[in-house]
Amino acid sequence: MTADSRIEAITKRIVERSKPTREAYLDRTRRAISKGVHRSTLSCGNLAHGFAVCSPRDKEALAGDVVPNLGIITAYNDMLSAHQPFETYPALIRQAASEVGGVAQVAGGVPAMCDGVTQGQPGMELSLFSRDAIAMSAAIGLSHNMFDAAVYLGVCDKIVPGLMIAALTFGHLPSVFIPAGPMTTGLPNDEKSRIRQLYAEGKVGRAELLEAESKSYHGPGTCTFYGTANSNQMLMEIMGFHLPGASFINPGTPLRDALTKEATKRALAITALGNEFTPAGEMIDERSIVNGVVGLHATGGSTNHTIHLIAMARAGGIQLTWQDISELSDIVPLLARVYPNGLADVNHFHAAGGMGFLIKQLLKAGYVHDDVRTVYGQGLAAYTIDPKLADDGTVHREPAADVSADPKVLTTIDKPFQANGGLKMLTGNIGKAVIKISAVKPERHVIEAPAIVFNDQQELQDAFKAGKLERDFVAVVRFQGPKANGMPELHRLTPPLGVLQDRGFKVALVTDGRMSGASGKIPAAIHLTPEAVDGGAIARIKDGDMVRLDAIAGTLEVLVDAADFDARPLATTNLDDNEFGMGRELFASFRRIAGPADQGASVLF
């Protein structure tokens, strides 16, 4: 139980709201558990296909039901720095499985695209939908019904949410997530941001920009800023899908390999063939989801998870809302300063005490539930540790410190960086949106200025380059929602808007699109729903309309007479250019059926 009655009340509200769907989900999961994984009931042809390339020892083991078989779902590719380390994981996992008498097979691969490569490019319009495609791809891999448990190898933005949706869809199986860790520290993130702004102003060239970017993203592992990828890792640990301390150990280190081996053996230990059966669908419950949201707020995590967490929860029959997320943000203080909320990167966060220190502080204040199930077999208190490499090459865990090793990066519950998590829901006469203010200066939490309307992000870029934005304004960027064009991230808008803000102008963004986990100092009302192509009032806004964004009161209003505003026709735009190229034509059906942002922007639920 938590000690904070407000957290408990929100959790109970989610439980009550979720009862019909959660009970139906658990009934399906338990029926699947009762059927079991009986490889011996497969026809001889089925089974022969399933272990055709296995060693004689593994074939003999898989012919019966007494040896656990571990399915590996991998997002490996060697174009993504965060996923390149997974190339060697299957061999390591097979070896670890063999050491405890088990078998491991790569059940399937899932696509893994990099938002960093596709920012501002046509391919970005597939990014959000890749989450649901990943879930479906993982389902195909696990549909062979050869496995007693699964391990998921994934790190980045849509990959982990997609894999978690798959893990809960196959909730009768135990599931362990195995990360690869962050790349080592390169060029400081604030320096990278400075060069980007100079480039936007034309003060440095492409060569200088590429040099800065290459020094930032320079090796294997996740990007080191606290965007969606690293928010994913935090979530998997605080929700109990990682082993304690697994999230932020660098790739290619002995401790990283030791954690991977340990995770493999733990996955085999929690199958139905043992005494610690931990099916993912029963392990993750409303308390786990609340713990994830609390962790997101305490660390100033990615805005993308106001979409992903809702979809992930729905996969387990749990009905999470933006209202829940916003109210939890009002309760939970910010305990971490990691770029863009500060100057540090995730390596500095880990060195300051990392996840073990953070969870210890949250437990101390009663902000998270300890009485949850985890893959480790104990409650959340078992995660208040600092992982080390033991002399024998295994993982040794020491108690997390009570004092931060760097109070400027990670602080205690009684000295928070700010009183709330900084992720809030905004409501008003143009719909619902979310805003992240943990990196926005307090004097910019309320912006009232005339609207300048753009129907795509390139229009804003062109207006900036032409010197047409040298004034106070609210940029309204519409036709960027799931149904319009797949809801791409609009992170390329950050440098020009940042330049204008630094010149002293009052600037804000209102959009039915997304901003990445790297969004920072610009007040941005994002994920606006209903979106423009779905009849949203954002399609009624005109140039010059006064817009008031108030992150303190939680409101977003167009200051126009209500009758006049409602009588305006909805603007339209030509989206033909978004229908083809870079595979976009293959996702036309996704765009047609995509749900709204506040319901997870999913084609699955």
Automatic annotation (TrEMBL):
Belongs to the IlvD/Edd family. This is Phosphogluconate dehydratase. GO terms for molecular function: 4 iron, 4 sulfur cluster binding; metal ion binding; phosphogluconate dehydratase activity. Pathway: Carbohydrate metabolism; Entner-Doudoroff pathway. The lineage of its organism: Bacteria, Pseudomonadati, Pseudomonadota, Alphaproteobacteria, Hyphomicrobiales. It comes from Agrobacterium albertimagni AOL15. Gene3D superfamilies: IlvD/EDD C-terminal domain-like. Binds 1 [4Fe-4S] cluster. It comes from the Bacteria. Residues 408-601 form the Dihydroxy-acid/6-phosphogluconate dehydratase C-terminal domain. The gene is edd. Its EC number is 4.2.1.12. GO terms for cellular component: cytosol.
